[in-house]
């Protein structure tokens, strides 16, 4: 069986491509994931650890054999309760290839315990002679290799076993109990048979383990719920991209309406390889700005981006008396009446990613409502174009952020109280002399609209942005020491990975981010 294992690894070394295998896409992907050589080693070590834990203890089939010994006649020998109770893998390698991934563990040792028993009848004595005891078996120089195939199967990743083998180089057996010293030489003749049972059983169990792992991958959800409104589509697009040192995956990555099968089809995506400035990072996740814009459009269409403001840090802004020097006719017509602000976005925010920043333009309508005798009276509507810049951070496995105000413009959309002098409302905060001059009588220190945007609109948005949305990470894995890289229209998250929870393949995880809201 050894030539088979060596052939697996040699074939992968010979036919491993020197560049990434690019496959033509029939469906657009907007998130790309790259597992580097360090990430593959991490996964390999995790799989080896899990394989050892699943193989120990491992019960092997009973071995029976009859032999003819001169003067004694036929001797029946049986080994039962053969159990592998310890496995040690000092060295293992993983090698991606054109059609899959090879994993080879060499120099492996394992320890077995078993019961032995023999009996025979002889013409020399009128009774049956028997003896029994225990034995310790040491297996050394064992090599285990398997080749795994990976392919996209209807949006899920299919894992298959292309080849699997186990070879035992050397076995030593030590008998205990009974007249073990007398039978040691006879039992040594069973080394080859015990080695064959070890090889076949481990091979069978590894194949069963890969089937369970495939079931785990097949059961991963194709969307990650973000909240009751949105989900992130994590359907795989095409087969993995394999190189001699990494494996890449493409997923759809757009936001969709929760529990909806309809996918947006109007986003453009320019393919670009995942690249991290630090090559030692295990994982790279590249997001196209279309991911952010799909979220923006979805929440806008769900009428999530509108709210009524009835409380602000400076509550005088929600009374007509606070506007008497800015909009005199408002105070004159509705003296000392309370107000609220009805804010709604007129179009989805447009998000752009540049080399050094993320910025957005928010188009909103602000309707000034007067509250008079329990009646809500809309008196004016101001259209706003708010320019903001954003900063991003990794919070757990979420991509979160915040925005700050860069500038804004506004225009009067309609008014029931005559023309408004909007320049009085739009004096910029960085020109305090003009502010003080315009509002000396009212002792204003900031323009009204600037204050409203900075103290009401943006804090509201930042509460939701600070929670972020989940990146496509399998449950149980967490990002560590992540860094964020900006490029034209792309965001790349480069990170190490830690495994925090036992991976129980009998309890397949499903994502649950119901407490996460993204706006």
Task: Write out key terms for the chains shown.
519 residues; alpha+beta; 8-stranded antiparallel sheet; 23% helix; disordered C terminus
How would you characterize the overall build of this protein?
The protein has 519 residues and is an alpha+beta fold. Helix content is 23%, strand content 43%. It has helices at 2-15, 37-55, 180-188, 191-219, 289-301, 328-333, 422-425, 432-438, 448-465, and strands spanning 31-35, 58-59, 63-69, 73-88, 91-96, 100-122, 125-153, 156-167, 170-176, 223-225, 230-233, 241-242, 247-251, 255-257, 283-288, 306-309, 338-345, 350-353, 358-372, 375-395, 398-415, 469-470, 477-487, 490-499.
Give me the secondary-structure topology.
Blueprint: H1 2-15, E1 31-35, H2 37-55, E2 58-59, E3 63-69, E4 73-88, E5 91-96, E6 100-122, E7 125-153, E8 156-167, E9 170-176, H3 180-188, H4 191-219, E10 223-225, E11 230-233, E12 241-242, E13 247-251, E14 255-257, E15 283-288, H5 289-301, E16 306-309, H6 328-333, E17 338-345, E18 350-353, E19 358-372, E20 375-395, E21 398-415, H7 422-425, H8 432-438, H9 448-465, E22 469-470, E23 477-487, E24 490-499
Antiparallel strand pairs: 1-13, 1-15, 2-4, 3-4, 4-6, 5-6, 6-7, 7-8, 7-9, 10-11, 11-14, 12-13, 15-24, 16-17, 17-19, 18-19, 19-20, 20-21, 21-22, 23-24
